[in-house]
Amino acid sequence: MTDKKSTHQRGTHKPPPNKGQPYTISETRFWCQRLAKTTIRALHILGGAVSSAGFIFAVDKALWINWWVLAMMSGVTMMSLEIYRSKLWLIQLKGILTFVKLFMLLSIVWLPAHQAHIYIAVILLSVFIAHGPAGLRHYSIWHRKRIDEKKQLNG
Questions:
Q1: According to the UniProt record, where is the region Disordered (predicted)?
Q2: Of 15, 52, 81, 135, which is least surrounded by CB within 10 A?
Q3: Which residues, in sequence order, are CB contacts of 61 under 8 Å at separation 6+?
């Protein structure tokens, strides 16, 4: 005598979606997130570019201060999104060097005679962070190796 329950379920069991597979999102959601992140980055670059007039060419502060606020607010937004997405960002060079850039910008308060040089150094550092090799950006100062995914933390 066969068991009806086991015969009925044999071959019909389907694993839950995405079990054992990486988390996936819909194409629409992917594009919305990608466009939002790109928009924030574009605003950040625009704010930094326009406010550079004040730091490099000593243009009247009233002409560029709102652009500086835009650069800072969009920068904080990008940092927050990166930290929310992965806490690893805080120990990877891309995160550490972002904090170095913030400290360099803060140092302008104490070294105003060097503000143009400091601002240019921050821009150059930004290029290396954004466009450098992944091995540099994803290098963890804690683990002393490149860390891309959470599963690489063991060992």
A1: 1-24
A2: 15
A3: 54
Q: Are 92 and 139 in contact (CB under 8 A)?
A: yes
Cα–Cα dist 63/83, whole Å:
32
Q: pLDDT for 38-81, tens place per residue?
A: 999 999 999 999 999 999 999 999 999 999 999 999 999 999 99
pLDDT at 123: 96
Rounded to an integer, the average pLDDT of 24-40 is 90
The residue type at 56: I
Q: Would you call 75 exposed, middle or buried from its count of C-beta atoms within 10 A (0-12, 13-18, 19+)? A: buried
**Nearest 5 degrees, angle CA 85-CA 86-CA 91?**
145
| CB of 138 closer than 8 Å to CB of 92 | yes
